[in-house]
């Protein structure tokens, strides 16, 4: 696992955006061989999206041959609901870049047949082969996408019931009214995320420090779903100093040193 420790939120956002751009360009995507990107919502990735939009606007990056799969969507919110993840993605990313509408995949939280919707989602990913880079945030309780503590670490796309902690945390987007937050969501599974060629988790702010401790120093445990990243061949965590508050000083030093060594190697 790589742990990239940056000074603050904006440095993390820039690093993550540069990494996404580098991966897309190095892949040389074409209509027949698109780059497949897994995408998150939440406040953490907003800075990364803003940087990616800037790169597109400056003519430095194209999303023409990029196909996206979003992680999750609330059940019962129509796509035009201001708090739906469809709306979030459109407003904060898709409407600003040149991604063809047909390349965007999102779970439909208004479906009448959840099982079929989830099965189709998994099959569509498989038809493309695999997700090349899955980007995620992490909840303060260690959830990834909407895989709450106790989720099967080999789970696939399905319905999940949100925990009280998540409802409370996400109520900030629903006028601080917990009753307005949907109680269920459709989400890719932990297994779906782990199947990606590479997984990059963004964790910023002191509120994520406990989750980061479990992800990096804890043992793999379903009560901290993000800890499964330890089993991924190409897992990256991008975090700021504040999120490392609960890591041992030695752990922080180790990951900083190893990234510096790698940088020196590249410069040589
Ligand atoms: C939600 C999303 C997750 C996201 C988490 C953290 O629950 N389903 O994908 O990682 O929130 O969000 P934030 O980045 O706002 O802290």
* Major beta sheet, strand line-up: 1-10-9-6-2-3-5
**Strand tally:** 10
Question: Radius of gyration over alpha carbons?
Answer: 18 Å
Pattern of helices and strands: EHEHEEHEHEEHEHEHEH
Share of helix, binned: 25-40%
What is the overall number of helices? Answer: 8
> Which structural class is indicated by helix and strand composition?
alpha/beta
Largest sheet: 7 strands, parallel
Q: How large is the share of residues in beta strands? A: 15-25%
Uncertain regions spanning at least 5 consecutive residues: none
Q: In angstroms, what separates the terminal alpha carbons?
A: 24 Å
Q: What would the principal axes of the Cα set say about the shape?
A: globular
Mean pLDDT: 97
Which ligands accompany this protein?
2-amino-2-deoxy-6-O-phosphono-alpha-D-glucopyranose
What's this model, at a glance?
This protein is an alpha/beta fold and 268 residues long. Helix content is 35%, strand content 16%. It has helices at 9-27, 46-57, 85-92, 114-128, 164-170, 190-194, 209-216, 249-267; strands at residues 2-6, 35-39, 66-70, 72-74, 104-105, 133-136, 158-161, 184-187, 198-203, 235-240.
Structure report:
- By secondary structure, this protein is an alpha/beta fold.
- The protein has helices at 9-27, 46-57, 85-92, 114-128, 164-170, 190-194, 209-216, 249-267, and strands spanning 2-6, 35-39, 66-70, 72-74, 104-105, 133-136, 158-161, 184-187, 198-203, 235-240.
- Strands 1-10-9-6-2-3-5 form a 7-stranded parallel β-sheet, sandwiched between helices.
- Helix 1 (9-27) crosses helix 2.
- The longest helix has 19 residues, at 9-27.
- The radius of gyration is 18 Å and the shape is globular.
- The model has no long low-confidence stretch (mean pLDDT 97).
- Bound molecules: 2-amino-2-deoxy-6-O-phosphono-alpha-D-glucopyranose.
- 2-amino-2-deoxy-6-O-phosphono-alpha-D-glucopyranose is lined by residues 40-44, 71-72, 136-139, 145-146, 166, 170.
- Residues 40-44, 71-72, 136-139, 145-146, 166, 170 line the site of 2-amino-2-deoxy-6-O-phosphono-alpha-D-glucopyranose (GLP).
